[in-house]
Sequence to fold (611 residues):
Amino acid sequence: MCGIIGYVGKAEAAERLIEGLSALEYRGYDSAGISVFTKESKLLTLKAEGRLANVAAKVEACAETRGVHCGIGHTRWATHGAPSDRNSHPHGTELLQLVHNGIIENYADIKEELLNKGKTFLSDTDTEVLAVLLSENYAQMGDKLGAIKKTLSAVTGSYGIAIAFADDSTHLYCARSGSPLIVGVGEGENYVASDITALLRHTRKYYQLREGDIAVVSEDAVVITDKNGDPADLPLETADWDVQAAERGGYPHFMIKEINEESETVKKTLNTRIKNGLPDFEAEGLDINMFKDLERVHIVACGTAMYAGCVGKCRFESYARMPAHVEVASEFRYAPPLFGKGDLVIIISQSGETADSLAALRLAKECGAHTLAIVNVIGSSIAREADNVLYTWAGPEISVCSTKAYTVQAALITLLAAAAGVARGTVTEEEAARIASCLHDELPLAIEKIINNADPIKAAAKALHTTQSMFFIGRGSDTYLASEGSLKLKEITYTHSEAYAAGELKHGTISLIEQGTPVVSIANDPRMYEKMLSNIREVKARGAMIIAVCAKDAEDIIKVADHWLEVPALRSDIAGIAAATSLQLLAYYLADDRGLDVDKPRNLAKSVTVE
Ligand code: M6R
Fold:
């Protein structure tokens, strides 16, 4: 998704902007640009479609970008108007340049009014409409803050914006509603950014703007007012993410670095939630007894976070013996709200900013449900707005493809379900202690074992080098894991794949199996081995290449398999979390083998802040 950076201080502004944008590349983008005040205090804008390197080259070639100290920059992920130089941000007029994250929903109506007044536009974007409207208001009012407020009150949708006014080369203005924005505080320099990753090289101190806040930022001051125009009393926060954590640390890609962090982050996430061997969420203010009276749980999320929710569904059902519904956030919002007071809605999100998940959270609250967020990014919108929040301590996840976030989400929700089971009397304390110890001690070891013995995974990935279409199958909770494995593969290797409940293939899809069709067959549940074995034989008989994902005691399945990705011995209800690491690695090695851009797959963004 789009990224914003703004700088005002004594350093070379253009360098700082490019550096900040480079740290934001992980969010996904298709064009980029900057505006800086030249030595003559003139606003100079340089932008280009494609990689940030294209803008960096323009900056390098332009002497006017040197010796300048204030400016704004943006990486754009196209929503309105194709990726192109002219649709890249910043947008503006002779009065100002502006960068924007989010969507102005009523831009078409405003544009029509402005066109009728004789205004002209150079791009197809909603952002330019915002910039032209702001310019018009500023021309009429001569008051920057007044013009910003008037403009923002006329638009609907979401925005995080940073503005450079042409007649003031020492201040930047910024505002947010719906899209996150922070103001970074340095020594004799200050920043605006869409997330802290952009600033970590220079500062870890920042203000997280709240909905409706407007900030005026100069080299030595930050003045923030709230939506009523009163001084906003925001705490100066300190990011505990360091540059090391946000950089690759010697790995060729963030994705493999992040997979390698899984075992550590699982322990970190569970450490403080296990007391005297038992799951314990008291310190976080979560009243686990609420599960006693609950009839069901709703789990709402998107993408990989949603598949982590499916792990939760299985465990709430098996441990706490209560129905758990997993819903895709973008659908949940528009379905009849069959929940309300007395219901629990769990929202899972790595970024805590996913627009549909945030909207689902707000809907759940409006309907009176109790909301619990499982979130990785501290202080993110979902974390702030939920009634309770459980943070996953995965640290920054930079690769677009979510890996360690999934593992910790799945482990944490499993622990939560065990705690709910104890509260409901459906799980004994002894059993809960066994679950907790398996999650905290055995799971991290199993993940390490998979990572350290990756040769069979690499070999399977090699065998898939020219594959264009394949299947993932499983039974029970492995069906959901199959979907997650298939998503990983599609996302970064651009291979078409489908995930199926293994028993369902023969009701139609098996017609697609032909000589050599790869079928990743996941079998973590010993109760299902025989059934899985039959399903595997059915596809094998039609020529499928079997990549089995199972423990070594699934001997008959291994005999039938062309490739075997071993899942270390673990309780079957937890083995799937470790098996996910094998599927992540399979996708990773295949993408790498094909020379693809592993961390920044095409068309995708890390944080999906549009609906
Ligand atoms: O930040 P979130 O966890 O809310 O993001 C949800 C999905 O967009 C995300 O998991 C997406 O599916 C990943 N790119 C998958 O690897």
